[in-house]
Amino acid sequence: MAKEEKEVLLKVEHLEQYFKLGRHFYNKAVDDVNFEIYKGEVLGLVGESGCGKTTTGRSIIRLYDITGGSVYLEGKRICAGIRPYKQQVKDARAKFKKEKQELLDSYKETVKSSGPNPELKKEIEAKIKEKEEEMLQVVKANTEEIKKAKFDHKNCNKEFAKFEMQKVKDKYEPLIANETDENKLLMLKKQYKNDLALAKKDRIMNKMQMIFQDPIASLDPRMTVRDIIAEGLIIRGVKDKEFIDKEVYRVLELVGLVPEHAGRYPHEFSGGQRQRIGIARAIILNPELIIADEPVSALDVSIQAQVINLLNDLRDKMGLTILFVAHDLSVVKYFSDRIAVMYFGKLVELTTSDELFAHPLHPYTKSLLSAIPLPDPIYEKKRKRITYNPLADHDYSKEKPTMREVKKGHFVYCNSEEEQRYKKELSGE
To answer: What residues have CB less than 8 Å from 3, skipping those under 6 apart?
Structure first.
């Protein structure tokens, strides 16, 4: 399927996640990140510790309220930040204040040198009025955007519930209107009532679930495996205990465990089994998107392979879309369709996994790939580590970098001079 024909499931636009370090300082954990995830694909997100990978995943799933940008799931905005709009309002007012003062100062200088000038005064007042109008337009436009962002962020779940309720009504009302058999009609009405109650409590975030990095810390030690896995169904409003048990046993078998495990507690399992419980908890609501936050980094190598193969099987069986956060580039290459490389809160390269390993362009990507060890002592002796130094590798004094498509589907964070160099590098091979 061509890229243009693929359906975009998740769209991230100008995502910002800033954490306050004081009154006037921020830690820019995620800064102006843009990407799309297509339905059915696995997007790998890689980078060194502290670069913002986990924060990106947690921001998308609304464990954090984002400070800027927007996140769309199936075309509906589920996250919206207002910091950039507030900043634009602040900048516009500061700019107007400065320009107004400059115009008034220039008039005062003219008065000092050549005396009062009514015509010039009128001209200055007209310019100030014009500048004020421009400022007010910017303030109005950004104030409207703030209102929209706040509404979407706060009400996305309510709007989704209304949409799901309407779908249930559209499905059942014609069936009820056309049914003549009394017994079937009663059953239809009962089913309609149950489905409508579930739809009323439905949330768009049910379509997104997260698998956490630490399988020990992410499971409540005081809850049984059944309670842990069933929690999502209970919160959604499902009350039928028989149905809940049936679903819990079904997902336990899907992840390679047995129904007998449902009555045990997390401490009775190994690390790999705990991670399988975490996966079962994530898939019980049949989500569209899974955010896997380094799901294998806390496991030994043989168990890592089992969990990756399990995720691959679930992807095929359930049609899952996965944002796969990881450190191990070998695992990411095997498991991901596309790979996004992150450095210091920004995406620096994004392309298919084969293209990234065959033609890495950004110096940081080359540095990461040079760090991959291979079980070959001869190769390891010759392997040269590439050190990434942003100050030495880039000159952004004249032009700031942006994310650019240097080849179809291959995006790199660079300026015009680097873009030309990367294109020559690709064409020369």
So the answer is: 38, 408, 409
Alpha helices, H only, 256-352? 271-283, 301-318, 329-335
Rounded to whole angstroms, how far apart are CA atoms 410 and 335?
19
Assigned token pair, 101: 């003062």
The owner of tokens 């010759």 is 382
Percent over 70 (pLDDT), the chain: 99
Q: Cα 22 to chain center, whole Å? A: 26
For residues 264 and 227, give the distance between their C-alpha atoms in angstroms, rounded to a whole number. Answer: 10
Helices (H) and strands (E) in the chain, counts: 14, 12
Reported confidence tier of residue 2, pLDDT bands at 50, 70, 90: very low
Count of C-beta atoms within a 10 Å radius of residue 195: 17
CB 403 within 8 A of CB 412: yes
pTM score above 0.85: yes
295: amino acid identity, one letter: P
**Token pair for 106:** 């220039």
What average pLDDT does the structure give for the chain? 90
